Amino acid sequence: MLVSFLGNPISMTMAKKLALVAIVACACALVSARASPLDPERYFLVEAEPRAQLEDYRLNDDVWPSHYDVEIKPYLEAETNKAQFTFDGSAKITVSTTKQDVTQIKLHMARMEISEWNVTRMSDNAIIPTQVQSYDAETEILTLPLSTPLQANLDYQLSFAYVGHMDDDMHGFYRSYYYVNGEKVWMGSTQFQQTHARRAFPCFDEPKYKATFQLKINHKTQYNVYSNTPIVSSTNPETGRSLTTFAVTPSMSSYLVAFIVAPYQVNERDGMGILARPEAQNQTQYSLDVGIKLLDALGKWIDYPYSNVPAMTRMYMAAVPDFSAGAMENWGLLTYRETNILYRSDDSTSLQQQRIAAVISHEIAHQWFGDLVTCEWWDVTWLNEGFARYYQYFGTALVETDWDLEHQFVVEQLQGVMQMDSLMSTHPMTHPVYTQAQASGIFDNISYNKGAVTLRMMEHYLGKETFQTALRAYVKDRAFKTTRPEDLFSALNRYDPNARSYMEPWTVQSGYPLVTVTSTDNGFKITQKRFLVDEPNHSDQTTWPLPISYATKPSDFSATKPVFYTGVSFDIAVPNAADVQYMILNNQQVGYYRVNYDAILWGKISKALHSEGFGGIHVLNRAQIVDDLFNLARGDIVPYGTALEILEYLKDETEYIPWLAAINGLTTLSRRVHADDEKLFTLHILDIFSKAYDTVKFQAPSASERRVFTYMRQNVLQWACNYGHEECSKAAVAEFDRFYKNPTVKVHPDLRQVVYCEGIRKGTEDHFGFLFNQYLTTNVATEQILILQGLSCASTSELITIMLDAIASPHVRSQDKSNAFTYVINNAYTLPHVSRYLQQHHAIWATAHNGYMSVASAFNNILSRLKSDSERDMISAFIETNKNILGQSAYDSIKTGLNGYDSNKQFTERNREEISDFLDKKINGGAAAVIANMSMIVGLLMVVIAHW
Question: Binding residue per annotation — 849?
Fold first, then answer.
């Protein structure tokens, strides 16, 4: 069979050898993908201990900037006396102070060599005498001592000349590339959030130091240049070079400055343009269309049109081949991974299209919540990201009205963040940060998801119109300023005096409550206690103001305005409480809490779920019940047998949202089911998915079907095929074989994930090589992701090795390496092979992924999925033998992962009897009769769940 590396057909064996050679040769230039501000990683590496006093990481308030003039001259090719991937820079910063006799100026710089600097009093151009500067490499603070103190309320100008570096780590002003006809084309782009503007020019690199910026770029004439604002002039200072000057920006934080130097083209209309490499221009139309609509819709919703900012006469959105973040909200020049902005209907899935629209909405929302109104420091990142995540769904819903985004929000955001927030390691939304690592780490699901969830909770409490009015006032009050939570609370309190007292505790307290409902003679008693999934018997006394709504009949679920209650427990009077159909708390899951019920109430809920029409229980509350049951069982609060019995209702569920919640719960459960019970678990999965499979069928979506029904099909087919559903597998393999024989007729995008996966799982090395060649040659980034997912379903150690070689080589771009590795280990068959690969090639992996902490992260993700003591022991032996090579931090991190394996094993043993008894009773009691004759059950022990 043949695999193409850089377009050259070679044998599989030779491909593997050459891949390893390429890894070693190129590893020095490779870095790992970082946590994305848009998509925070769920699992973080062990944070390095601060090596300075915490307060030393922050600038003082002595000096404030008001304007920057910056000129950048990049060298994307080596020139006389100029090294490739460096740039000459000059920066002039206007500063002032309100204090008398300031004798030093502190600001940031990194990865640059300053050749000269001076300080001038602008009123008379007098040079201020200075002393020798000092620099702290840990805090990245440059200190400029002055022989003559600064005087209050006068303007001074700091001038710097320096040389910077265009690294390939996707931070600062960095280099990227793409191919045209097999030739590498270099380009430069920026990513400054949170603390990397200082790598492009000396600056006061904290959000509160807002200033205006005027940028000039001296560039080769074959390149085009773009920045936050339009071009105002262009001259030719030397042969083959242009000096392009951009308009002055609004007053903004340094992390929002952006510029691109690339031979890009623009698809432009109505004040918006999509920037992309020329070969990708045919993928920009949808982003342009939806971007124009979103910019207008959000401007109207907030009652502050984008054009109200005089400098913002147009908006550009750029597709960048290498980009650490999912996207970035630079004012007037939004930047994106190609997968998050480039779309082709014949190569991208329906869900990828939604993702693109939602990401654009997220970044456009930042033009107000982040750019115009900016969090004062990263300890309140949620004031930027919580709003952007909220509008990611509710803003997109303004223009894409048929996607049920409000429902998707509940499972993806509210239920999603509950996982992280149920651990002792969580933190409050408002949380102190000082170091660069801490600033990066706060960009997590708490700031994003929980921030958005808390805003939705307040929206339902205040009402849509009042909530909108309050936010409009907030934006106008804080425009061009920074903000703290008290500013938002003050705006909300104008329209409801209780708003702050109800909202603030959710922002300053970690975690969330478990609310227990018990029947009384006159109604129901409500009790709250913090939910910690691994510590059900904890003594934490934290309480929250509880937003309470409830339904005792179908018509009640539409009443989502909660009433807030305080205290550990309280009573709700309900006439004839014993006779109600059910008692379900938290209508449409507006409140951020889990709910448990006494046995009688669970019995009523179960009866309703198993009745026709699910007893009229709202689809979001069905999803809530599913998610709560899985997690209450996991937390030893509801027996697994009880939870699984109630969840048998899923056999008749045909809505996407409850199934999405179920898939999240089943994913976790599948990793904890005892290895000896996996055959029974497989039969259970095939049973509960049987009707859903018959409902969605293995077919391309019709033009008239609901968008979420298409999403449901993708999930159901993936699970059915993964667990050996014969009809699903045959259909997927047949479609892959047809594509293999005639690649000009593509698989429908919404079937590709399952077709590629099953085709590779059941196929040959030739099939693998064919799909790998598709990955290397496609011009569509979204298609590359689908192919990586498919290739990761390989079922031989040889092909798994090929995948891991590719991940550690330049063939998988740095931004995609982390996801590609996750795809591989979500195929549980690969775990022992991946573990051995890392043990054998740890040095290569460390070099390719920026150090041994990435090796530790890889092992820990394997350990979280393993069910084999022997494999666990091999990893333990490996780290003991290689402790000195790993380093103390990586060693300690893997030790923590080993302890996690032991905890997971204890969990499995503790719950095995309950789970296996349920499965055995169900399967051997006849519930699985409809699949009893399915011959493919034999050998399914190797086929286990994957999480997408």
Answer: no
Residue 818 lies in a domain: yes
Long-range contacts of 573-577 (CB under 8 A, 24+ apart): 573/522, 573/523, 574/522, 574/523, 574/524, 577/519, 577/520, 577/521, 577/522, 577/523, 577/524
Rounded to an integer, what distance in angstroms lies between the CA atom of residue 698 and that of residue 901? 37
Give yes or no: residues 750 and 645 share one domain: no
The answer to whether residues 207 and 375 touch, using CB atoms and an 8 Å cutoff, is yes
Strands 272-276 and 315-320, by their bridges, are: parallel
| Closest CA relative to residue 682, chosen from 625, 721, 652, 643 | 721
pLDDT in tens, 541-569: 999 999 999 999 999 999 999 999 999 99
Predicted confidence at residue 828, as pLDDT, reads 87
Q: Are residues 838 and 810 in the same domain?
A: no
The residue behind tokens 């870095």 is 31
> Of the candidates 394, 388, 359, which has an alpha carbon nearest to the alpha carbon of residue 373?
388
The string of pLDDT tens digits covering residues 310-321 is 999 999 999 999
Quick one: average pLDDT of 483-494?
A: 98
pTM for this model (two decimals)? 0.92
Encoded tokens for 314: 């147009």
Query: What's the gap between Cα 446 and its chain centre?
Result: 12
Q: Three-state SS string across 767-821, please?
A: HHHHHHHHHHHCCCHHHHHHHHHHHCCCCCHHHHHHHHHHHCCCCCCHHHHHHHH
Distance separating alpha carbons of residues 503 and 939, to the nearest angstrom: 53
CATH number for the domain spanning 572: value is 2.60.40.1910
Q: How far apart are CA 31 and CA 23, in angstroms?
A: 12
Q: Which entry of 363, 653, 735, 758 is annotated as an active-site residue?
A: 363
Average pLDDT (17-28) is 32
Task: Judge contact between 794 and 800, C-beta under 8 A.
Answer: yes
Same domain, 835 and 913: yes
758 alpha-carbon distance from chain centroid? 27
Bridge partners of residue 184, in order along the sequence: 179
Who contacts 881 (Cβ-Cβ below 8 Å, separation ≥6)?
Answer: none
Determine the pLDDT at residue 414.
98
362 is in an annotated binding site: yes
What is the token pair recorded at 804?
């891991």
Band the pLDDT of 536: cuts 50, 70, 90: confident
506-522 CB burial, b ≥16 within 10 A, e <16? bbebbbbbbbbbbbeee
Report the pLDDT value the prediction gives residue 48, as an integer from 0 to 100: 59
Query: 325 in a domain, yes or no?
Result: no
DSSP 307: G
Q: Which domain holds residue 605?
A: 511-654
Domain count, the chain: 5
Residue 245 three-state SS? strand
Examine the residue annotation and report whether 653 is marked as an active-site residue of this protein. Answer: no
Q: How far is CA 39 from CA 33, 394, 719, 812, in A?
A: 12, 18, 24, 19
CA distances from 136 to 105, 433, 440, 554, 615 (A): 14, 19, 20, 64, 65
- Tell me, yes or no, whether 699 lies in a domain: yes
CA distances in angstroms from 845 to 324, 838, 858, 860, 886, listed in the order given: 19, 7, 10, 14, 12
The per-residue pLDDT for range 623-674, each reduced to its tens digit, is 999 999 999 999 999 999 999 999 999 999 999 999 999 999 999 999 999 9
Residue 570 has pLDDT above 90, yes or no: yes
| Six token digits for residue 562 | 């909660």
